[in-house]
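Hey, resending since the last one bounced:
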Amino acid sequence: MKQISHLNEQIRQEIMDIELDCERLGQKLQTAYKEDFYDLKEDIVIELIRKVKGRPAKREDIFNDNYESYLEVGVEKEDVYFPNAYIPVWKCKREMFHTIGLLMNENLVFLEKKLKKIITEMHEDHMKERDS
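The structure tokens again:
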């Protein structure tokens, strides 16, 4: 993750845009892989999670101390959610005398490849479990 020490409105907007792009990518891949998991009687879930100190947060909380956002990949089966992997997107924390941010290094193309790999491995594992 890359460290950002000068947090301003331009950075806030860039982070909000990146989070929005991540949400859209998650929705796109969730739709693309829905049928594969439907065959296993599972629903794939890919969503951007925002938290401050472990509690749900809003987009506007980006610069709050202990804010973090991440993409979470999991499946829902018989109304029970099973998280499988997460990829950090942004984290804001207090360090010494000022607040810093940590932003993922990946661009969206690399992030999409990484998510597809996670989803494919997850699907293969679930196929093996079903067949055993």
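The longest helix spans residues 9-38.

Sorry for the duplicate.
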